[in-house]
Input
Amino acid sequence: MSEFLLGLRLLFGSGRGSRIRFFLMAAGGSIGVCCLALVLTIPAILDAHDGRDAARQPLTSSNGPADGTLTLQRDDAYGSQPFTRVFIARGTAGTQEAPPGLRELPRPGEVFVSPKVRELLREAPGIKGRLPGHVAGVIGAAGLSQPDELYVYIGTTRAQLADEGRTLKGFGYSYAPSPAIDSSTLTDVRFALATLVLLPLGIFLSVCARLSAASRMRRLASLRLLGLSTRGTQRVNAAETVVAALLGAVLGLGEFWLLNQVMSRVGLPALRWFPGDGALSGSTVAVCLIGAPALAWFVGRKSAREATANPLAVRRTAVPRPPTKWVGLLLVVGLGLVCGYCATAFTAHPASSRGLNAVLIVVGVLATGIGLVLTLPLLSYALSSRIARSTQSLTLNLAMRRNEAEPGSTMRVVTGLVLLVYVASLAQGVLIQLEQATRPESPVQEYSVSLSAVTTEQQRKLVDVPGIHAHAVTMDSWWDLQAPGVTHATTAVVATCAQLERMVERSKGCVDGTMMRLVDPDSGTNPKPGESYPFRFDGGKVKELTLTLPTRQAAITAYDPSAIGSTELIVPPTALPAGARPQSAHFILTGSSDPDQVRRTLDGIAAIAPIAEVEPVGLNVQGLEQIAVVKTLLALGMIMGMIIGVAAFVVSVTDRAVERRAQVTAVTLIGARATTMRAVQCAQVVLPLGLGLLLALVTGKLAESSYLITGGGAIRWDLAGLPLLALAALGVVAAAAVSAMPLVGRRIDPELIRRD
Output
């Protein structure tokens, strides 16, 4: 205890520089702990979302009492968001349990809405057509999975639900039918966040724990020479590092609390939560308050080992030993696993992510990233030695000799940025894998709207929605089950040849103004000519029109899935009765299948026809929401990784510049110009950083490819993402060079040479 108190006295009594260094360590550690708490809290936020969704699910039965409470749930889409309506008809028998968020079951004519639906009613009054009744209240937070959810309880009568309603037994499932992120995708997200944030975070906390390492090592060596024991010297060192880390952990938890209060109210794109969902749990607090000081103690103990074992060498600034070559073993193991999985792509049976492979691929990616970090000092030492022996440039010689003398400082300076580029490759791979698993294989996306739900004016506006490049009308024939000789109904598309060509992959033989059979060789569609089908109409003089399949045909190849692919007849718009609208018909719109464009198109359709039910052909709107949530989480991870990487670089470069003031002053006093010293400082950072980024690009792409190959998708080699990463790496090098030059300083203080 006495050594620990001695360390605190030395910390606060050895000048303003030591106190500033202590608070910098605490501030840097607080940023890292805040990011760590955010990563640890994300699963809790998702679990809270799914837990409330599961708790409100109605338990129903088809064999309930005759006068029991009935319920019916409708899941529609409003733009790109699910819109859930739960109809409840109260009965005299059975359960009277209210769903979470309500005090009692709604009565006939009462409508309870979520806060987002209440806002929507003010912004788009047309949505009122979906809500028969008057708004009697707002659903509480316990009944909503997230604040922006579109959810409604509608009270009605038993007679209205007699045909489709089921008897209500209660509320609450053991699982969420529509989780925020499904389990398989959540595994990928956790893996990505671990590499995006936790790897750079560990390096950053280590950097903060080793601020002003050279000065502290000389002070510890002095204490050791004065007779303090090895353990006592370690305790003195722990007084500063552990207390700074503990203070940083407390500050970081406070920063996270403020951040949660702000972010939960403002929200992120596609991701909202209640403040209580992001509350700090006991396990998160324990990990932060114990993990950060433990890491600081471990790093401080390791860095102080030389000062306690050989204090004379530290005090006399002896030439350090070169890094051991064994540090590269982890990188070799990781690259061996990664390259092995990449090699299976050239075989008949590529490796999959099942069984042991699921563990080994994670081990390979993490071992490669950690091995890259540990190998950087060795590579920097080898590169610096080679350049220093061969160059004739004074600037390069000074820069490389300094890097050769202190190869460990290279890791502290460039590691954060190198890891940022490495994990960016992995983030690209996760996004590619998710899009392959969830996006439609077709390059186009069709939207089907019931023609009776939109007016002629709305049809004209829907055609002009941004992203819509084709449209047509499909109509179903009327089929009398009692009529002899008719075995099935048919579907016709009302369009011109130009419209048809824009809505299918290929079209051949279409003639404008002519009714023709549609034949799709790929799907086997080949209707027989001569069959007649009646179509019914509203609004005109002609109420029914019988169309006969002609002999002339047009060959098409429809996209999969497609509403046009099931049509057997193309009818020119001029062939329909004037002023008539088909009774059983749909307005088909076609646009790009890009998920972001699909979301914008659905929102555009909802703004024009808010009451109409829109069916995205072959697309699950909840799956679209999951993609948006995953992209938000990965973007959040990238932002945190960038903050950590940049913070580690700024802290390390500034600290190294302060530590080397005596050497810079000595070299300046013997005649080196300021421009030369700035070039030296720049070269000391740029060369090892450039080497590290080049290795990060290569190893990151290999790790990404191994992940994609074992994922089983169609894309295995992400060459399209390489230019973006290369440009990002060049930008990082340029920014590092510019930021390193001013750190030499303009004032020269000869007293620095004498200071201890």
Notes: The mean pLDDT is 76. The first strand starts at residue 58 and ends at 61.
